[in-house]
């Protein structure tokens, strides 16, 4: 029996860097599991779109598909857009079993990726001293999604023994600039910002711009195509594949 195909489903962006990063992450996943059929797809704004990818897989003979949403928090896209897209694909291909896994989420191991990206930003800024950190994320109107970011921030701060504020690029306060200014008002001068975004785009760019204007010494690149994220994708796929097994 062939293993289910894996579709790594991202939201999509008008920024070409975003889709390029998602596709690079999918290449990392393929390198780890060359035995699987693995495709990237997008809900909107980028190509290929999800329904087109499903059609292509079905035409190639795949009758089981696991969809791994490349989303960091359980917000609107995870709760509404992904289930809607999967339901549409299932209605169009009733003979195919399509299972959405849990989202990529916020793994504690992602903090190692944040540190790696931030060390590079600090090296480029020639900064060797820090007295505060800001964890910048997209933000959501769903308070539970923002709380998940804040929890990860607390874990990150306890690891480095530094104060950490979670900041958001949209939908919730504080913005990155506000978080940096609040630390500076306390007398802290060496404040770095880590970008808790999967890929580059308008929101991470805006978060970085506001942080630097407020006096941050460095802002890291987004998580990007990293082996740690690729392993997380495969972990979600493994659970989704098990859920396809009839009981």
Briefly say what this structure is.
It is built from eight helices and eight strands.
What secondary-structure arrangement, pairings included, does this model have?
Elements: E1 5-10, H1 16-32, E2 38-42, H2 50-59, E3 64-69, H3 76-92, E4 97-100, H4 110-125, E5 132-137, H5 143-160, E6 164-168, H6 176-185, E7 191-195, H7 202-214, E8 218-219, H8 227-244
Parallel strand pairs: 1-2, 1-3, 3-4, 5-6, 5-7, 7-8
Helix pairs in contact: 1-8, 6-7
Characterise the protein shown here.
The chain has 247 residues and is α/β, with parallel strands linked by helices. The chain contains eight helices and eight strands; from the N terminus they run E-H-E-H-E-H-E-H-E-H-E-H-E-H-E-H. The strands form two sheets. A four-stranded parallel beta sheet has the order 2-1-3-4, sandwiched between helices. Strands 6-5-7-8 form a four-stranded parallel beta sheet, with helices on both faces. Strand 5 (132-137), helix 5 (143-160) and strand 6 (164-168) form a beta-alpha-beta unit. Helix 1 (16-32) crosses helix 8 and helix 6 (176-185) runs parallel beside helix 7. The two termini are 16 Å apart.
Keywords:
247 residues; 8 strands; elongated; 4-stranded parallel β-sheet; 16% strand; single chain
SSE run: EHEHEHEHEHEHEHEH
Helical segment tally? 8
With strands numbered from the N-terminus, the spatial order across the biggest sheet is 2-1-3-4
Please state the CA-atom Rg, rounded to the nearest Å: 19 Å
